[in-house]
Amino acid sequence: MSDALINGLAGAGGGIIAQLITYPLQTVNTRQQTDRDPKKEKRKLGPVEQMSQVVKQEGWSRLYGGLAPSLVGTAASQGVYYYFYQIFRNKAEFSALERKKKGIGDGSVGMLLSLMVAALSGCVNVLLTNPIWVVVTRMQTHTKKSQPNFTGSPSSEEVVLAAVEPPPFGTSHAIQEVYGEAGVLGFWKGVFPTLIMVSNPSIQFMLYETLLKKLKKRRLSSSKGSNDVTALEIFLLGALAKLGATVVTYPLLVVKARLQAKQIIGGDKRHQYRGTLDAILKMIRYEGFYGFYKGMGTKIVQSVLAAAVLFMVKEELVRGSRWLLTGGAVDSVKPKPR
């Protein structure tokens, strides 16, 4: 089994586990991002308060709205990303070794090349999986209609209407809604800011690779002379790398969510976006720069936790797979260049 396939499958497995753990936070964060109320003075609910509110008003199931397509999307995204990342990484390492033979460089992949590898992998991933995330966003932001409040004695017709539970909003409903609004192209809404967002995993992996390399170098120079990295250390490195990437790229994430959420036709024109630039300009005009950072606290908690779990599980799966395939212990978290 190739390194690319091992990393792809391990990335998918790690992504699914991370998604299951952090999904309620992700649902709350998407709702915060798509909240278009420009009033700054209104007290904003924290993630725990908002989760409690969703459970009280809509039930536990709404915290996991869109979980099924999200798991498919996570597995697909992580699998595609890590598969192509490893392929491009191997080519970059081979190219670096060839340059070293010619007396150019030290044979290692530099920071800039690592950034390019991650960005290219991210672009392939975005183009292939964006339709899944449009559907997930619709399902996360869908809310149950509130029951009517009666004044006086309700009529028999009102009682019947109040007793009717709205049908569940499933994957097929979200797909039909997106297609009904914009046709096939509707499934690629938000693809432009998402393509720019590939800088997030690029920055994340650049920081992760740099920190991991420094940690291994320190280990090799120690008295033990081993570059083994523990699962806890991978967890912490992944969290730190994701934190830095999230702070830099969060405004693009908000714009993407706004474009992918349901557009209210015939409603307030301030809340209707024709495209990325239109969304940015309207957010600046009606909400100020504050609008670009709605829900950032929740996102930091969710994304850092998810990334840390992902890195830890993924590396352990890679380590275990190589151990099973080779029948021996693996002395490094990452494979040595071939």
From TrEMBL:
Q: Which subcellular locations apply to this protein? A: Membrane
Membrane topology classification:
Multi-pass membrane protein
* Signal peptide location: none
Basic and acidic residues composition-biased segments: 33-46
Bilayer-crossing regions? 109-128, 187-208, 229-253
Ranges of the Solcar repeats in the UniProt entry: 2-91, 109-214, 229-320
Q: Give the matching SUPFAM superfamilies.
A: Mitochondrial carrier
Keyword tags: Membrane, Repeat, Transmembrane, Transmembrane helix, Transport
Annotated InterPro entries: MCP_dom_sf, MCP_transmembrane, SLC25A32-like
Region annotation (Disordered) maps to 29-48
Its domain of life reads Eukaryota
The main place the protein resides is membrane
- Family indicated by similarity: Belongs to the mitochondrial carrier (TC 2.A.29) family.
Q: What is this protein called?
A: Peroxisomal nicotinamide adenine dinucleotide carrier
Cite the source lineage: Eukaryota, Viridiplantae, Streptophyta, Embryophyta, Tracheophyta
